[in-house]
Amino acid sequence: MDNVANLHRLVQADIQHVRETIEETLRRGAAPLSDTILDHLLSTQGKQVRPLFALLLYRAFTQGYVESIDRDTSVLQVVAALELIHMGSLIHDDVIDEADTRRDVVTVNKEWGNQAAVTIGTYVYAAAIHLLCQVGNLEILTEASQTVNEMCNSELHQLGNRHNTALTRTAYIDLLRGKTANLFKTNADAVACIIGVSAPQRDEMCQFATELGILFQLTDDYMDYFSTADDLKKGIGQDFAQGQVTLPLILLQAIEGVSPFESNFQVVQLKMLELGIDRQVQDQIQVHYDTVYRFFPQLGDSAYGDGLKTLSRIVCERAYRAKVSDYSPLG
Fold first, then answer.
1. Per-residue DSSP letters for 16-61?
2. Cα distances (angstroms) measured from residue 51 to each of 18, 116, 141, 188
3. Residues 238-290 pLDDT 10s
4. How many Å apart are CA 273 and CA 231, to the nearest integer?
5. Cα 205 from chain centre
6. What is the pLDDT of residues 60-97, one digit of tens each?
């Protein structure tokens, strides 16, 4: 996602404020060991796609509004809090997956052990709650807590379906809706709430965010089978090694009728390419991109709206740059 850095420049001051808020919130009252781990976490925050999405959305929909410092502050604090929730979830995910690296950097659980990772992950969640309480919007606090609940339930559902090749495509997309897409949706819903848009427009903003979140995860699923470690920023085949049933495996199982887990990753990967599973996943990605695209007229012609359109394309195109193919979904 090389071009994301260019999009950050559109909301550079906002992004910087979010980063500073995250650090200040985490540092406040941290124990000595926590400080060491926080140094590690704060140096490896990645592309921060969710804050970028939320801030572009906010600026796109407040073009022409009378400037409001209070409104801006509320949005920035909420976006920071939701990114803290994302950060905490990644720490716990790495414990569950027994991951040694993330974004080419050693994980907290690998460096400091599972006990420290679970504790610091919970600390990060607590920091998010504290920040949301400072905003003082009960509706957003309630939505955020429901989001964490749904994310945890989806994680448990995914754990329960490891090696379950009977998992359907519909059930899997529903799982993504509850896990990866949920924080995108909650960011959009919080922005809509603070701006005060109409109920129908708020619903449409949430649908846009949900579809973008699903698109984001489907491209990750694609890249885990059909990219390189450099593209994915982690070793490919990790989902398969952990017994995670994602869309490529679901599609392969539908054709072969034999559990892919009876073979090794290289055999499964080759079989997928022979059967055109990569193209089928791309087709599914295209479906969700088309849904995202239908929202584009509402984004207007501002630099921020154009930034959201570009972000959507960048997310989608990850699944096309990663493969040695001339096929393009976007024309």
1. HHHHHHHHHHHHTT--HHHHHHHHHHHT--TT-HHHHHHHHHHHHH
2. 8, 26, 17, 10
3. 899 999 999 999 999 999 888 899 899 999 999 999 999 999 999 999 999 99
4. 18
5. 16
6. 999 878 788 899 999 999 999 999 999 999 999 999 98
Q: Parallel, antiparallel, or unpaired: how do β-strands 101-102 and 105-106 relate?
A: antiparallel
Residue 286 CB contacts under 8 Å (≥ 6 apart), including other chains: 316, 329
DSSP character at residue 329: S
* Side-chain-side CA neighbours of residue 202 (13 Å): 12
Q: Thinking of the domain 4-321, which architecture would CATH place it in?
A: Orthogonal Bundle (1.10)
Strands (E), the chain: 101-102, 105-106
What are the domain boundaries of the chain? 4-321
What the block records as the tokens of 299 is 């984004």
